[in-house]
C-alpha cells in the first residue's frame, strides 16, 4: 500500500507535471473542443463560417475566399535595392561589399586569427581597433557599450527595424584551457570520488575531446564556467543589457545564455533526468501499444497508468512527493529545498526511483540554486524594464534542461503578455514534438507561448560528438529535411496564433524563401503585422535586403545586435567570418543588390546620400 505524505508548497499533482502532455491529444477532435475552437475562430476573425481545414497542425491550409481578407494582404518586394538600403550611406554599402568579399576567401577565413594578431603587432592596438571599426567590427557589431550602440539602434528604428541586444564578449583562451574548464565544471565531486558507480549516460557526461564548446560553432557566443563570481558578473552584464534595451528602444529584446549563469554540471544532470523520464513515458506508451506516434497523439489510458505507476512506485514513500514538485519554479529557487532531491530518475529494471548521483556537496547544492536564482533576477528585470527576454538555445546535452527551465519561467512571467521567449532549433529531429507539446501546455494553462525558431548553430559539433561517443545523431539528415521541419513548426505556431491569438513567434532566418512562406501563410490566415504576433529576425550586418523592406512594410522585424569592446569581441568576429564564408558564397543576390544600389546612386548623383531620420 502506498502511503503519501503531504508536502507543504505543492502546486501541481503528479499527473499534471509529468503525464499531462500524454493524457490527451492536441488535435481538436472532440465535439466540445471543436465547438470551442469554432467560437474562438469566429470571434477573432469577426464572425463567419468555421473552416475545418484551419485547425492547428494542418500547414498550408485555411485559405479563405474572402474579399476583405484579400484586400488586407501585404506583399513585400525583396528585389528593390533602393528600399533595402535607404538606411545606409554609400560608404556603408562599400564596406559591406568589401567585408563580404573578404569572407569568401578560404585562406583569409582559415587564418583570420593569425592575421588579426599580426595586424595588432604591426599597427598597434589603437590603430588596429580603428581598422576593425571601419571593416569587420563596424559591419557586425554595434559598438563598445550600451551608450555607443544607441545611434545605430535609433537609426534602425527610424527605418522600421528593432533590436535584440546581445553582449558578445568572450574569453580569448586556448583550446587546452577551455577543455580543462569544461572538465572541472561538468563533473561533480561525487563522480570524481566514485568513478563507475553512478549510472550516467555518456551523452550527458563531459568528454575532454569536446570540452572546448567553441569548436565547430558558427555565430553563437560561448560561455565557459570559471567561478560563481564570474557568473554574477555575467548576470550584471545581462541586467545592463536589459536596461539598455529598455532605454534605447521600444518593445526591445535582450538575449541571454543559460550557461553564462552557472555551473553547467546542473544542466547536464537535469537534462539527463528529463530525458529519462521521457523514456519512461515511452515505455508506458509501448505497454499500451501506442508508441511510435507523435507526442501529442499519444493518449495513455489513465486507469491502466494508475495501476502500473502505483505498482512501480509502491516502495518509494516520500520521494514521490519530491518528484511531484520537481518542476515548480518557486521550489526550484527556494533555498530550503535541496536540488539533489529533485534529480531522481525511474529505474524500470528495479521498479523504483533512484538518485542520479549518490551524493552532492553542499557547495554544488548552492551552485545549482544560484543559477536558477540568477535567471529569476533577470526575468524580473525584464518585466520591470518592458523588455522581452530571449533565451538562446545551446547544445543538445544542455538543451532539455534549458528548455524546461525557460518554460517554467514562461509559466510565471508570460501570464499577461509574452516576456520570456524560448528558442527551438529546427535542425533537431525532435523539434516538432517540442514545439507542439509546449504550445499545448500554454493553451491548457492560459499563458502566452513565445518562441524563436532557428535552424541551429551547433550542427557540425553535434554530429561529430554523436559519432565519436556513439549515440544517435540528434540532427536531421540533410538541409532539406531541416527546412521541412522549420516550416512544419512555423505553420503549427501560425495556425495556433490564428485560432487563439495567444502565441507569438520570431521567424529568425536569413532564408528568403522561408520569409516569403511566412508572409503567404499570414495572408492566408488573416494575420496582420500590426497584431505583433509574428516577428522576423536577422543578424546585424547581414540580409538587410530582407530586414528593412519588412520593417518599412510594417512588419515587426529585429536585428540581433552584438556589442562589446573591440578586443573582447574578436572571438565572436572570428566565427562570424567563418559563418559568412559559406553564407556569402551562396549569397550572390545580396552582393548584386549592393552593387546595383551603388551604381544607381552614382548614376543619379546620389553617391553622397545621407539617410534622413
From TrEMBL:
Signal peptide: none annotated. One of its GO terms (cellular component) is mitochondrial matrix. The keyword Endoplasmic reticulum does not apply. It holds the Pfam family Pro_dh. Pathway: Amino-acid degradation; L-proline degradation into L-glutamate; L-glutamate from L-proline: step 1/2. Residues 29-39 have a biased composition (Polar residues). InterPro entries: FAD-linked_oxidoreductase-like, Proline_DH_dom, Proline_oxidase. Its EC number is 1.5.5.2. This is Proline dehydrogenase. It comes from Mastacembelus armatus.
Amino acid at each position: 500500500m502506498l502511503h503519501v505524505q503531504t508536502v507543504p508548497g505543492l502546486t501541481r499533482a503528479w499527473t499534471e507535471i509529468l503525464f499531462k502532455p500524454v493524457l490527451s491529444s492536441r488535435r481538436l477532435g472532440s465535439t466540445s473542443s471543436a465547438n470551442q475552437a469554432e467560437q474562438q475562430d469566429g470571434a477573432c476573425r469577426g464572425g463567419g463560417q468555421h473552416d475545418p481545414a484551419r485547425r492547428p497542425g494542418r500547414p498550408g491550409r485555411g485559405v479563405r475566399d474572402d474579399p476583405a481578407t484579400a484586400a488586407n494582404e501585404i506583399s513585400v518586394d525583396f528585389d528593390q535595392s533602393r528600399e533595402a538600403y535607404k538606411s545606409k550611406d554609400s560608404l556603408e554599402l562599400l564596406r559591406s561589399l568589401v567585408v563580404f568579399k573578404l569572407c569568401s576567401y578560404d585562406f583569409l577565413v582559415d587564418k583570420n586569427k593569425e592575421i588579426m594578431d599580426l595586424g595588432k603587432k604591426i599597427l598597434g592596438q589603437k590603430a588596429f581597433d580603428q581598422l576593425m571599426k571601419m571593416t569587420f567590427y563596424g559591419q557586425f557589431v554595434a559598438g563598445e557599450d550600451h551608450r555607443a550602440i544607441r545611434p545605430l539602434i535609433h537609426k534602425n528604428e527610424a527605418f522600421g527595424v528593432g533590436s535584440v541586444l546581445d553582449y558578445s564578449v568572450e574569453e580569448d583562451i586556448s583550446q587546452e584551457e577551455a577543455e580543462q574548464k569544461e572538465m572541472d565544471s561538468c563533473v561533480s565531486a561525487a563522480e570524481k570520488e566514485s568513478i563507475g558507480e553512478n549510472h550516467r549516460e555518456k551523452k550527458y557526461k563531459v568528454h575532454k575531446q569536446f570540452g572546448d564548446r567553441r569548436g565547430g560553432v558558427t555565430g553563437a557566443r560561448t560561455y565557459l564556467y570559471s567561478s560563481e563570481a564570474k557568473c554574477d558578473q555575467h548576470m550584471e552584464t545581462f541586467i545592463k543589457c536589459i536596461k539598455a534595451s529598455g532605454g534605447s528602444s521600444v518593445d526591445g529584446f535582450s538575449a541571454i545564455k543559460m550557461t553564462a549563469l552557472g555551473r553547467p554540471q546542473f544542466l547536464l544532470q537535469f537534462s539527463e533526468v528529463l530525458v529519462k523520464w521521457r523514456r519512461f513515458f515511452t515505455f508506458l506508451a509501448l505497454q499500451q501499444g501506442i508508441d511510435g506516434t507523435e507526442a501529442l497523439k499519444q493518449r495513455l489510458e489513465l486507469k491502466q497508468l494508475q495501476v502500473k505507476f502505483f505498482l512501480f512506485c509502491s516502495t518509494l514513500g516520500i520521494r514521490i512527493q519530491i518528484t511531484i514538485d520537481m518542476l515548480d519554479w518557486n521550489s526550484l529557487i527556494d533555498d530550503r529545498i535541496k536540488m539533489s532531491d529533485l534529480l531522481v530518475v525511474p529505474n524500470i529494471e528495479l521498479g523504483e526511483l533512484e538518485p542520479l548521483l549518490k551524493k552532492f556537496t553542499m557547495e554544488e547544492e548552492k551552485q545549482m540554486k544560484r543559477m536558477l536564482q540568477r535567471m529569476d533576477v533577470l526575468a524580473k528585470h525584464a518585466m520591470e524594464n518592458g523588455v522581452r527576454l530571449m533565451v538562446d538555445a545551446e547544445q543538445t546535452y544542455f538543451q532539455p534542461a534549458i528548455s524546461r527551465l525557460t518554460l517554467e519561467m514562461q509559466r510565471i512571467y508570460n501570464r499577461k503578455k509574452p516576456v520570456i521567449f524560448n528558442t527551438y532549433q529546427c535542425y533537431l529531429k525532435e523539434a516538432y514534438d517540442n514545439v507542439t507539446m509546449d504550445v499545448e501546455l500554454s493553451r491548457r494553462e492560459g499563458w502566452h507561448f513565445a518562441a524563436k525558431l532557428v535552424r541551429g548553430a551547433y550542427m557540425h559539433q553535434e554530429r561529430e560528438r554523436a559519432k565519436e561517443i556513439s549515440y544517435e545523431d540528434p540532427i536531421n539528415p540533410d538541409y532539406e529535411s531541416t527546412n521541412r521541419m522549420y516550416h512544419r513548426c512555423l505553420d503549427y505556431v501560425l495556425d495556433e496564433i490564428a485560432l487563439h491569438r495567444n502565441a507569438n513567434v520570431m521567424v529568425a532566418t536569413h532564408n528568403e524563401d522561408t520569409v516569403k512562406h511566412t508572409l503567404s501563410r499570414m495572408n492566408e490566415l488573416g494575420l496582420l503585422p500590426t497584431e505583433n504576433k509574428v516577428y522576423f529576425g536577422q543578424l546585424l550586418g547581414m540580409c538587410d535586403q530582407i530586414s528593412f523592406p519588412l520593417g518599412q512594410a510594417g512588419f515587426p522585424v529585429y536585428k540581433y545586435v552584438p556589442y562589446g569592446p573591440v578586443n573582447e569581441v574578436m572571438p565572436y568576429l572570428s566565427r562570424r567570418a567563418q559563418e559568412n564564408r559559406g553564407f556569402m558564397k551562396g549569397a550572390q543576390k545580396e552582393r548584386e543588390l549592393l552593387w546595383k544600389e551603388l551604381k544607381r546612386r552614382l548614376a543619379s548623383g546620389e553617391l553622397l546620400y545621407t539617410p534622413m531620420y
